[in-house]
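Class, discuss our next protein.
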Amino acid sequence: MTSTSLPPSDDARDRAAYWFARLQSGEASAGERAQFEAWRAADPAHARQYAEIEALWQAAGTLDAAQQARLGRAYRAPALPSRRRWLALGAGMGATAAAALVGVRLWPLPEEYARSIATARGDRQELSLPDGSLVSLNSGSALRVRYDAGQRRIWLEEGEAFFTVTRDASRPFVVDAGTGRVTVLGTQFNVRREGDAFSVAVAGGTVRVERGPWWNRQRALLTAGQGSRYADAASTTPDLDVQAAIAWRDGRIVFRDTPLPQALAEMNRYLPDPLRPRFAEPRLAALRVSGIFDTANPKALLAALPRILPVSVQAGTAGTVDILPR
């Protein structure tokens, strides 16, 4: 039997999950077992991560019938090819068992610092972290922070944040944004999350961007002045305008040949009570706008539209705004 290649991952936990699933399958060859033993012996972190997954699996034996049924459903995936099925098993059994086990804590390192922060529409906040790193949180955003001895972790739950990261080679700085992940040692960068889509703009240094499920993780490096938007696993918009993306930090909204519906949606991010634009004709939604506006006065965009586009604007009821041809 030919050996099965490892999933393309730099994460010891991902590889540990892969090896556990592969060995539990009963299909691993002698060569694969030798590869596993070499991997486990290569780094104490590998052995630790594998031991945690073993402990998690053994602890699952204490679940009640309903919890075991949920766990079983998580790793039954007959529609997938063999290799991907066992990769999915590794992910499913870890995530589902961890969620089901109440009171079982298997974090490898003690929590040193944890914080949650959120901003209302029209508000911005800054957060100083224990290592000297800074987080600037844009309007209508929320994130969680967790530091331990081995990693600095951010979960961007919604909205946008700019990170100025103090360099620490022993502790990567990781930002999770939906299906995406950004990893750095020390740099300045912006991350924006819109549902499952996210964008990254790098002001200084280098970042690694990952997206997609752990068994099919896609990776890219972005350096200073580069940015991209990732809509899903198969859709990327490169050459994001970095200066426009981070202009909010200076209180500016920058539009450069931006579709009008997108510009109005951006305006709404800074309004406590978002407006509901209505286009009288479909062709009006195809118009594009350029200009620089103040985040403290986002409605200035509406006032400017009749001067820069062939439209008129009328306020309606219940927060509606009608965009009419002129």
